[in-house]
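Batch 3, record 17
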Amino acid sequence: MNLKPNGRIWIDTDQGAFMGYGRIELLEKIQQTGSLRKASIEMEMSYQKSWKLVTQMNIRAGEPIVSLKKGGKNGGIAQLTPFGEKAILSFKEFDHAFQQFLKSYKPNLE
Amino acid sequence: MNLKPNGRIWIDTDQGAFMGYGRIELLEKIQQTGSLRKASIEMEMSYQKSWKLVTQMNIRAGEPIVSLKKGGKNGGIAQLTPFGEKAILSFKEFDHAFQQFLKSYKPNLE
DNA sequence: TTGCGTTATACTTTAAGTTAGATAACGCAA
DNA sequence: TTGCGTTATCTAACTTAAAGTATAACGCAA
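Prediction for the assembled complex:
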């Protein structure tokens, strides 16, 4: 039978989801590439969707998570703000605690 | 800003999801009505979908959660097995612990 | 044997979300 | 001033999960 407790967590705001597994992965790829387009390709996600996610995060957080600039030397740049970096760390900590919770829980059905 | 930790949990098997919020609600409505059709109407869910959910649960649990019988006095009957009742209680306990976890967690971002 | 309300199942249609494709705007560097 | 690669945005096409529609099978009761 092999019953396995599972789940997922995220952070909401009044306007909707703010931070979750997909967004975290996207932010990390932005951090690595410096480009929203490259990050979306690595995520195998359309540019439109990742742009929407980032823009939503920026609005919902009240303070920019990612700084987006178009034009210039390399065509443009996408960069995490210090606040964005803090947000990643905070969510990862939350998820770590949740994974511990999941691991510790034993369903009593046999 | 009002950041609110949120999440959901469920129970998986090797064949896929076995128990979660929607299924629990469906099981409780079956318990109350004795009918899969009436339960689906109360859930505002198509009969086909609820039938599929119940059938999957029965298969994935290895042991019936809901007993389905067609024909007879009232056209047919849907009834939780004792094992099904235990499954409900077990999941609710799991969820209670999870809600406690969520409530206790304070994100450190301000 | 007929009617009833349910379970059981196939097929079609709808709706929502996602992606694709195209194009404008931008600003540095050559 | 031109070219480049990116951000930004619109519209159309596609995909897929869900619901709708229809019908068969069942077994008790009248």
